[in-house]
Specification:
The chain folds into two domains: about 160 residues, 3-Layer(aba) Sandwich (Rossmann fold); about 140 residues, Rossmann fold, CATH 3.40.50.2300. The chain is built from twelve helices and twelve strands. It is elongated and about 80 Å long. Strands 2-1-3-4-5-11 form a six-stranded parallel sheet, with helices on both faces. The model has no long low-confidence stretch (mean pLDDT about 95). The chain has about 325 residues and is α/β, with parallel strands linked by helices. The protein is about 45% helix and about 20% strand. The site of beta-D-galactofuranose (GZL) has 15 residues, from helix 3 and strand 9. Its main location: other. Belongs to the bacterial solute-binding protein 2 family. It is found in: Cell envelope.
Length: about 325
């Protein structure tokens, strides 16, 4: 317990507050509005936030928005009404949060964007954005494909499973990938549609791609592993060999992706770490201690092709 906290507690008890109330009075309260439970990545992110809050002795008020923006906004409003110390959330989509962020600012409650960002001009509405550089993840996916296809003059027909429409990862992973492959006209995205980051939708959309384009498809670029895993089922049910007849590139680096790579069904997964809990709790504590925190905290990540999957698998933490 910090000296400062000890002093505050002693003062509260000396003022007649029972110790258990003094301890509760001093506890930092964090309101966290989570996107939902749509993917393995999200489940690992939720676990990281909950475990880290417990570890840090921070009282966590947790809301699951079930991938609906109106639920996230409602949860943030409830946190404001409850006068939490800090609000953190991963915006399900990049627009439409301006009004509620202004309400939090008016209530003098600092907001931390965790994982995803918002497309708001006024960046005074949040104190920090911590999470991956999704555009760079898209570039890494594109660079891996360019390297794999170098030396070939043949057209490379790509189908793309986009993440949740309007979300920062979907917008930026598309942008980064296209930035890299657009340098060579042999790469053509022939179909692109959202699979909403879920296995079920990823399978459904891949079935439609296969029906429409069939053996013309050379590559699948999926914005997350869950959609890739769903698509792998569709590819197998169509009598094709995933990672051989169709090269598959995805993002996240969750356990399911490593298992698919070790089974020879996924070519590469670009890492996107969900383990943001420790950084978030440290930022919350620093904020409450009056320290300034960086406006942008970028997660460091790698790229894992199937050739290294078995060796790396024991090190995976999500
Ligand atoms: C990315 C995160 C995305 C993951 C998906 O940081 O927001 O949302 O890539 C998850 O798996 O659903």
């Amino acid at each position: 317990m910090s000296t400062q906290r000890r002093t505050v507690l002693a003062a509260l008890v000396a003022a007649g507050l029972p110790l258990h109330k003094a301890l509760a009075a001093d506890k930092i309260v964090l309101g966290f509005a989570q996107v939902g439970a749509e993917s393995e990545w999200r489940a690992a992110n939720t676990q990281s936030v909950k475990d880290s809050a417990k570890e840090a002795g921070i009282e966590l008020k947790f809301a699951d928005a079930q991938q609906k923006q109106e639920n996230q906004i409602k949860a943030i409003r409830a946190f404001i009404a409850q006068k939490v110390d800090v609000i953190a959330f991963s915006p399900v989509v990049a627009t439409g949060f301006g009004p509620v962020l202004r309400e939090a600012k008016a209530a003098k409650i600092p907001v931390i964007l965790s994982d995803r960002s918002v497309d708001e001009k006024d960046d005074s509405l949040w104190v920090s954005f911590m999470g991956s550089d999704f555009t760079e993840e898209g570039r890494r996916a594109g660079r891996w494909l360019v390297e794999k296809m170098k030396g070939s003059k043949d057209t490379v027909n790509i189908v793309e499973l986009q993440g949740t429409t309007g979300s920062a990862p979907a917008i930026e992973r598309k942008k980064g990938f296209e930035e890299i492959i657009s340098a060579d006209p042999k790469f053509k995205i022939i179909r692109s549609q959202t699979g909403d980051f879920t296995r079920a939708k990823g399978k459904e959309v891949m079935e439609a791609f296969l029906k429409a384009e069939g053996k013309k498809i050379n590559v699948l670029y999926a914005h997350n592993d869950d959609m890739a895993i769903g698509a792998i089922q569709a590819i197998e049910e169509a009598g094709l060999k995933p990672a051989k007849d169709i090269t598959i590139i995805s993002i996240d680096g969750v356990k399911g992706a490593f298992e698919a790579m070790m089974a020879g069904k996924l070519n590469v997964s670009v890492e996107c770490s969900p383990l943001l809990g420790p950084q978030l709790m440290q930022a919350v504590k620093d904020l409450k201690a009056g320290k300034t925190i960086p406006k942008r905290i970028v997660t460091q990540e790698g790229v894992f092709p199937m050739e290294v999957a078995a060796k790396e698998f024991p090190n995976r933490k999500y």
